[in-house]
Amino acid sequence: MATLFIMILYLLGIIACVGIVIYLIIKRIEEKGNEGFEERNW
Questions:
Q1: For residues 21 and 10, what is the distance between their CA atoms, to the nearest angstrom?
Q2: How far apart are CA 31 and CA 16, in angstroms?
Q3: Farthest-apart Cα atoms in the chain, separation
Q4: How confident is the model at residue 10 (pLDDT cuts 50, 70, 90)?
Q5: Residue 20 CA to chain centroid, in angstroms?
Q6: What is the distance between the alpha carbons of residues 6 and 1, in angstroms, rounded to a whole number?
Q7: d(CA 17, CA 27)
Q8: pTM assigned to the model
Q9: By three-state DSSP, how is residue 29 classified?
Q10: Mean pLDDT of the chain
């Protein structure tokens, strides 16, 4: 029973990490798309 509990916690941790990575990728793509010509640093 304890091993099942540990496996569930491990799985939830992996799901949370994957979700955070996907969120950050989407956020970065949206920021890149909103970058205007005037906002660029030369």
A1: 17
A2: 23
A3: 60
A4: very high
A5: 3
A6: 9
A7: 15
A8: 0.66
A9: helix
A10: 87
Region of 35 (left: φ > 0; alpha: ψ -120 to 50; beta: rest) is beta
Structure tokens at 39: 């906002």
Phi-psi region of 19 (alpha: psi -120 to 50; beta: other; left: phi over 0): alpha
Which residue reads 């491990």 in tokens? 10
State the amino acid at position 24 in one-letter form. L
Helices of type H across 1-42: 2-33
Residue type, 9: L
